Every structure is written in C-alpha cells, then in structure tokens.
Amino acid sequence: MGKTFFAYGLLFVTYNRHVFIKGDWEKLSANPIEFDYSTFFEQTRGMLDDITIIKYYETNPLGKHTGNYIYLLLLSYP
To answer: Measuring CA to CA, which of 9, 10, 15, 45 is 20 to 30 A from 21?
Structure first.
C-alpha cells in the first residue's frame, strides 16, 4: 500500500507540475487513467543528460572540470 501510494504521488506531482507552477487548478488531473504518459517519457529523456554527467564524475573523480559548479547546475536545470 505504501509503495503504491508513493508511486501514485510521484506520478501525480510529475504530471501536474505545470499546474502547480502556474496555479491553473482547473487543469489539475488526479485520475491516472487521464494522464498523458508521453509526458513522463519526455521528462525521462531530458533527465538522461544529467545522469550521464553525474555518472562521469562518479567514475572519474579526477576528471577535468572548470570548477564552476554553479554553471554545471545551471546546465543541468531543465
């Protein structure tokens, strides 16, 4: 029950994030049958760049970087 609620909560917040940001409560969708699942696939593809950067620095701790972590954070922000 707890895992199902967590998964539903994660899907709910992910799908409705633009509704929360804009405050457009009329477009809020709480029914998982109504979710457009292509949205999740698009967001996953966008996150692959971030995961690649994180994996690179985990496997190459002495890898070259500029030292400008703020710039790296801005690049990884969607």
So the answer is: 45
Both tokens of residue 52?
A: 């690649």
Torsion angle in degrees (nearest 10) through CA of 46, 25, 22, 30: -10
- Domain extents in the chain: 1-35, 37-78
Read off the tokens for 11: 């899907």
Per-residue model confidence as pLDDT tens digits over 43-71:
777 677 778 877 887 887 666 665 666 66
CB 35 within 8 A of CB 11: yes
**Mean pLDDT across 26-43:** 82
